Amino acid sequence: MPTLKERLYDEWALKAELTQDGVSVHPEVLRRIALGSAAQETVNCLFSYNRDLAAEIDVPPYFILPHGLIALFHVDRRSDWRLEHDGRGFFVVDSDGRAVPVRFPERPGYYARQTSDGTPMRTVAVHNSDDVIFVAYSNECSLQATSRDCLFCNINATARKYGDVQGVKWKYPRQIGETVAAAYAEGARHLTISGGFVPERREVEYYLDVADEIRAATGLDDFNGTACIGAPRDLDVIAKYREAGYRTLAINIEVWDEHFFRAYCPGKEQECGGRDHWVRALEHAVGVFGRGRVRSNMVGGLESKATTLEGIEILSRKGVVAMSPGWIPNPGSALEGHRSPEPAWHLDVARKTYQIYRQVGFTFEQVYDATAVPQTLVHDLYRIEEERLPVFAEERAKEAVAA
Ligand code: SF4
C-alpha cells in the first residue's frame, strides 16, 4: 500500500495534467454542478482559459481532488480527460478508463451580494481557494492601443468575450472596500489587487485610494494585500505602496532572458524602462518591503528550463519570491494554439523552485502572502512536505483508532 505522501505525489502529478490539459465536458454534466447557486462559478475578470466554450456557459473555477489538492478547471475538447457524473458524484475519466472522483467548491456567500451602488460583488473580487481573493480593478490593458500587449496575455480578449456577459467592469475603490470587507467577514485573509496597464501609468493614486477604502471598510491596518504593478520608472514610488498598507508587492517579469522580455513583453519593455530596470525595481522593492515580501512570476514554458530556473534562483537569492506557474496558452492571445511543455516539465521546475526556496529560507506563509493563487505546484510541495493538508490529520486519526 503506497504511503499517504506517495499517494499525494501521484495526485500532484494528476493535478499538473489537469491544469495543463483541461477537460472535455458535455454541457449537461456542467448543469449538474449547480453553478451559481450551491457551487461557485468562474468569473472571468482578467484572464480566461476555456477553449471552444460559449461565454454564457458557466464552469467551476477548480477541482478538489480526493486528497485535497486543487487543480484549475478549464475546458479543452482536445484533453485526454473528460468530466463525468455517475448519478451520485463527479469523476474525471481518461481514455484508458482511469476514473478519479472530484468535487467542486461551494459558492461564497458574498457572491450573492451587491455593493452599495448595486454592483454584484462576485464581479469585484473573485474568490480563490484557501481564503484568498483577487481583484482585477481593470479588465482591460491599455497596451492594446499600441498593439504592444504581452504575447501570452488574453486580458483584452477576455474582456471582449466575457465583459458584458458576466458584467465585469472597471472597479471603483469604494466597491472594492465593501467587497473585501464582505469576503473577509466570511474568512478571506489575503487579497491581490491587479489589472491591466492604465493610460499614462496612473495606477499609484488608484492603489492608494483602494487601500484607504479597504482599511476603512475592514477596520484592518494590515489587510494582507498584494499590489500587483508594472515596474515604475521612478523607483521612489514603491515606498508609497508600503505606506498605504500593502504587505507585499508583485512585479511580474514574465520571462528572464532580456531578449525574450523584449520580444514577449514589448509594452513592458517600452513603458517600464526595459528588463534591467525591471530587475532593479524588484531589488528596490525588496529593500522597501523585505525579503520574501516581493513576488515576480514568469510564464512557465515560454523559455528554456535552464533560463527559467536561473531567473528563479537569482531573484530568490535577492529575496524575491520568483515563481514560474505553468503556461496555459490563452485563447485570444497572440500565442493561442501554441503548446505548453509537458506536465513533467512543470513538475520538475516546481521541485527545483521548492529546493531553492528551502535554501533561501522562504516559508509557506511568505509564499502564500506573496502570491495571488495559493495553488501552484510549489505551494503543494510545502503542503505535502510539511503535512499541512487536512488529510494528514485524518490519516493519523484513522491510525489511532486502528491501533
Ligand atoms: S501588461 Fe502584459 S500581462 Fe499585463 S495585462 Fe497588459 S498585456 Fe497582459
Automatic annotation (TrEMBL):
Keywords: Iron, Iron-sulfur, Metal-binding, S-adenosyl-L-methionine
InterPro entries: Aldolase_TIM (IPR013785), rSAM (IPR007197), rSAM_sf (IPR058240)
Required cofactor names: [4Fe-4S] cluster
Sample GO molecular function, one term: iron-sulfur cluster binding
Record-given protein name: Radical SAM domain-containing protein
PROSITE patterns xref list: RADICAL_SAM
Coiled-coil parts of chain: none
Entry superkingdom: Bacteria
Every Radical SAM core domain range: 127-365
